[in-house]
């Protein structure tokens, strides 16, 4: 059985190659170190990193992000696209938009656990298994850094919202189990 994400113990990233496609699916909880991992190990000319937080939440985007957003709007004109509800569609659009690049596509996203069709995943999956306690503390520190003028009340509200990370890890661990079992399932197909 796969070693799951723990509340108090950091573990090495879980890595599993699913197909030979040039895709890296990088996932983990908020604060687990996904973006840092991408910066440290996946930052050469042979990679293009798509951070779904930027793709879905930034007010203004350009370059590849703009291309992907435009394609999403064109393909789903009457739909309010959301990662938790429409992960499969967004994943497909990212791969479709970037298929002609001669680079490895890195998708940095905390919501891989929302995928419905696990067989749609391509390439390699990397799951950051940073402890939930560390993820929570990193999120709080990042919030304070990004909002230096926040009030104590605002900070306490953010802390309360972020405590949900202790519940969200269940979805990440279920995803991890599904990915770990996938090799056998794919061989049987």
CATH topology: Rossmann fold
Q: Tell me the helix content.
A: 40-55%
How does the helix and strand content classify structurally?
alpha/beta
Strand order of the largest sheet: 1-5-2-4-3
SSE ordering: EEHEHHHEEHHH
> Distance between the terminal alpha carbons, to the nearest Å?
21 Å
Largest sheet: 5 strands, mixed
Walk me through what this model shows.
The protein is built from 7 helices and 5 strands, in the order ββαβαααββααα. It has 189 residues and is α/β, with parallel strands linked by helices. It has one domain: Rossmann fold (3-Layer(aba) Sandwich). A 5-stranded mixed sheet has the order 1-5-2-4-3, sandwiched between helices. Helix 3 crosses helix 4 and helix 5 packs antiparallel against helix 6. The longest helix has 24 residues. The chain is globular, with a radius of gyration of 17 Å. The C terminus is likely disordered.
Summarize the structure.
This protein is an alpha/beta fold and 189 residues long.
Keywords:
5 strands; Rossmann fold; 189 residues; alpha/beta
How is the topology of this model organized?
Layout: E1 11-17, E2 23-27, H1 34-41, E3 47-51, H2 52-57, H3 63-75, H4 83-98, E4 104-108, E5 124-129, H5 132-146, H6 152-162, H7 165-188
Parallel strand pairs: 2-4, 2-5, 3-4
Antiparallel strand pairs: 1-5
Helix pairs in contact: 3-4, 5-6
